[in-house]
């Protein structure tokens, strides 16, 4: 996500007619602020201040704080749901499809880190948040179904409950938002493969 | 943690001389409220209201909101650190010690669910929180060291970075606070074994 006019990032008010952010750049700053201080605790005035915009300039791009939340959550959820609809998640052995979903979901998380971080902190305090939680439940249910299919085909152990396994796998994936930082010492492109190594093959060699 | 006088849980003010909670029961209610609405957003007045106590009755047990936080974080961190000091974490093959730590940490999390939940939400906004984050870092560092030892002895695969593996393993363990509820359909006593199965042996059968 790019910021159209980097001169406004200093926090100086943009008083000329044309706002310094495009819609995408504005959204990126909003999501960052929501993640820093919490969505509920962030006012439109806080957001305008961080952006160096007037509230009316902000409303030129988004009708409400909730619209910003909805667009950000759509980016995260839409990305994750798209993985489940890819051919690699729909065709072939269930264990291969599970591998595809684990890798793909990790890649979405790394690519959409701020939006997924926001999604994982949603607690259901509004209709937009409730809808996001419901989509997360449907996603989890589909992953559980995939684990159960892999157990039924005999390629995944069945001494761990499929729903528990799905939650633990996504616990591992979702934890990435807590400690991964782009440009740091950990290579984000490798994380999906690392998670698959642990989840499917296990750490132990002998 | 028990509540000494269940009559006060209705929220009715306790106006008689003797407060309705012992120290432990009061702490349990405080931790629950912190987890519900956030530590920073919870005032001593909120807490007194939830407990049905006057603020002065509350201060009879705890000197400040921060003392409540400190005691709760000590229960969580002390429990986790104790696992690393058990004989099973200090003697024998590194892969067996790692198994002991994963199981023991999961058991602490299940037993101390509210306190560990609070610990995992700490963001470092005070000296107490900073100290807790530092102890978490030391804990993570010791787990990373154990993974590296197991890699050096050849019992754990070395194509995943030890620090990344430690973070992913504890991502799986810590996720339990997000979805495990005592008395629900998932058996908390089995979770440690399930996590070890996935982490060390992997889900795949073939």
TrEMBL record, chains A, B:
Residues 43-62 bind DNA. Coiled coil: none annotated. The keyword Iron-sulfur does not apply. Residues 20-80 form the HTH tetR-type domain. The keyword Disulfide bond does not apply. Pfam families: TetR_C_24, TetR_N. Keywords: DNA-binding, Transcription, Transcription regulation. It comes from the Bacteria. This is TetR/AcrR family transcriptional regulator. It comes from Microbacterium algihabitans.
């Amino acid at each position: 996500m790019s910021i159209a006019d980097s001169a406004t990032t200093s926090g100086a008010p943009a008083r000329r007619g044309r706002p310094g952010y495009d819609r995408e750049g504005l959204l990126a700053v909003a999501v960052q602020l929501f993640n820093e201080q919490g969505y509920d605790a962030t006012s439109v005035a806080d957001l305008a201040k961080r952006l160096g915009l007037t509230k009316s300039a902000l409303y030129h791009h988004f009708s409400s704080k909730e619209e910003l939340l909805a667009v950000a959550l759509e980016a995260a959820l839409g990305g994750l749901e798209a993985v489940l609809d890819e051919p690699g998640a729909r065709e072939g052995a269930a264990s291969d499809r599970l591998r595809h979903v684990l890798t793909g979901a990790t890649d979405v998380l790394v690519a959409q880190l701020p939006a997924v971080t926001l999604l994982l902190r949603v607690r259901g305090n509004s209709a937009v948040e409730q809808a996001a939680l419901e989509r997360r439940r449907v996603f989890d249910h589909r992953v559980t179904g995939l684990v159960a299919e892999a157990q039924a085909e005999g390629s995944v152990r069945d001494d761990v409950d499929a729903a528990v396994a799905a939650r633990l796998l996504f616990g591992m994936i979702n934890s990435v938002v807590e400690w991964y930082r782009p440009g740091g010492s950990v290579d984000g492109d490798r994380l999906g493969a690392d998670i698959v190594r642990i989840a499917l093959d296990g750490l132990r060699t002998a």
